Amino acid sequence: MLRISNHYISKVVFSLLFLEVLILIGSFYAGVGLRFYDGDDFALPQMDHFFMSACVFAAAIVFSMSALGMYQIDFKGGLRTPFFLQLMPSFVMGFCILTLVFYIAPDLYFGRGILFLVFVISGTGIVLTRAMLLKTSETRFLESRILFIGCGALAKECGELALRPSNYRKYHVAGYVRVPSEQVAVPEETLLPCEDGRSLIQLVHRNRVSEIVVSVENRRGGAFPIQELLDCKLYGIKVTDAATFFERETCQIRVASVQPSWLVFGGGFDQGFVRSFIKRGVDVIASLGLLIVSLPVMLLTALAIFVEDRAPVFYSQERVGKDGRVFRVLKFRSMYTNAEQGGTPQWAARNDPRITRVGNIIRKLRIDELPQILNVLKGEMSFVGPRPERPYFVDQLTQRVPYYNVRHSIKPGITGWAQVRYGYGDSVEDAVQKLQYDLYYVKNNSLFLDVLVLIDTFKVVVFRGGR
Length: 467
What we know:
Blueprint lengths: L1 E3 L2 E3 L1 H25 L14 H18 L12 H25 L7 H26 L5 E7 L3 H10 L7 E8 L22 H7 L4 E4 L11 H9 L3 E4 H9 L9 H6 L7 H37 L4 E7 L5 E7 L24 H8 L7 H6 L4 E3 L6 H10 L12 E3 L1 H5 L6 H17 L2 H18 L3
Parallel strand pairs: 3-4, 3-5, 5-6, 9-10
Antiparallel strand pairs: 1-2, 7-8
Helix pairs in contact: 1-2, 1-4, 2-3, 5-8, 10-11
């Protein structure tokens, strides 16, 4: 895994993205060359913006492929069927984006003949590149051999995570090293015997291990092999603790096993002036732009709500924001009036009977969230961040869920990492899962991660609905 702005990115996906950007830009130049080749020489047109046009083309196609999930690779299922089902729609979406760009900036337009050639060449290049990746993934070139220190419930969970088929990389679990203080929770045949006179480094070399994951629940006492782990580290073997392994593989922070010291001394939690200034600037510019673009949709939504269930069109509700401050979030009303007649707040469920017909539609398309643009402009919210929760539920969750208040160290968002990764939640257990994503975002928040969340939000809204 690579870390870009504190966010974990698969080396395979990064390499694939890098190669495909080069292919897309190179295809543009190849298409222009073929279009104006007269048999003897290249009669290139007078275009001073070749590189800018090539970058716009590459950005449009990469965005479209990302929105359709073409960089979410599952080695278990291969790249064949889903790839070909997604490539053509990606090119169609890219063509629509380019049409809009050419309408706004006509100087970047490079002609239909060139565009056709560029699409053909780039499509061929992408197909060949992904076929090579598939062939490579079928070998052991991308496989890492991993060893777990520990044999308890935490080690078992980490081992199952390593073998999960949706990972971007393939692991082969070499085995588990027994720790005397733990009760064995893994299969006996996976335990590696530590023979007398043999050190951990010898065990690692004999099993060709490239990474050790320390998954011991209790590291106190003399049984924990800290000196031998240091020897492995000095010999070039990667040593990772369970919390970091879980964060890397799931893009979550596991609240059940993480230690406060790991949060204190680990990286992340960048809330400096530069980050805050950039985030606020992006929020204001994006909010004003979205407000202008979405104004017709908001007017039609208000009319539809009024026709179905009369006034009020908007719904204001108390939510907990940064530093625990309570503010009123503004949304389009998606439930019937007096939805909580008993006076006790209720979790919103996927098929909630309190939701109106118009409300069901605007919730799936997330149109009900659009009025929160005003909360962003007022500085109460951000575009991307943990979703703000109601004070009633915050009081409950703070008492029952460790580190819940950490999510209030930054501004809440219209959309967030938990929303695009988990979706609906109507219980304390769901709140824990969403909190683990929120903690990951709070710890690793950056402009790069915000962009990824916005792309995933686009994908959730347009292609499969969401909360």
